[in-house]
Amino acid sequence: MVEVYFHVGLGKTGSKYLQFVFFPALKGVNYIHMTKYKKSKEIIKKAGEGKFLVSREFDRQFEREVKWFSSDFPDAGAIMVLRRHDEWILSQYKRFIKNGHRFSFDEFFNLNNTGFFRIEHMLFYKKIKFLERHFTKKPLVLLYDELRSNPKSFLDKIAAYTGTTYDKSRIKFSKKHTSYSEKQLKFIYVLSKHIDLVPGDSKIKKYLFVYPIRYPVLYLSKYVPDRFVPEVNFMPDRKKLEKIREFFKEDWEKCVDYVEHSNEVLFPH
Length: 269
Description:
Elements: E1 2-9, H1 15-22, E2 30-32, H2 40-47, E3 50-58, H3 62-70, E4 77-82, H4 85-98, H5 105-108, H6 124-134, E5 140-143, H7 144-149, H8 151-162, H9 182-194, H10 203-221, H11 238-247, H12 249-266
Parallel strand pairs: 1-3, 1-4, 2-3, 4-5
């Protein structure tokens, strides 16, 4: 008998912490790391039996990948973590800037729906219902806020949902990766105007060119005096983020309500 759990992300919701710290520490499950995601179905089928946890974080490709995985494992238990829309899109934007892309924020996302990220990519409640349609098992949906405020409760829910255990004394509740500061991102933003820091699908370019430039710049820029920081303005202001928050307010409230009620069903006292 095969029992499968599928962590679908979203990206920028503590996924790296889960993938590198928590999931490997779970006992009673075969964890298939994100680096082996494309071979995950083959690995499970070859084993023929056992309990498996597959992890990969999605955003724009969410529906395509859920369809791909559920076509072979419709009884899998999906795990998804959500973050409030304005915080999420800002964190995504910072990630893209760090990775060498030169979007303005409006090119990245805007409420006129002409950006790289579209409104449909941020309808989180729709993603929940998509999981319910493609998997027979009720998904576990959690909030990123709980990971920040009460990590033990957050992790205990994943363990209970997957029927696993972990040694709480050996789990560190620190972030695997913290966001880079606006100061650091300014240096990358300026540098990416002159040097192509987007590796694409080339591993040679990624490891021999991009990484040896990107990460030393990010590290050293922390110590550059403020007077030498480039004067570039690419980050969205508070008003723009508040408009995004208000636009998705109903969607977020539906997600929070779903989490509260589904948690009561999944984890009855």
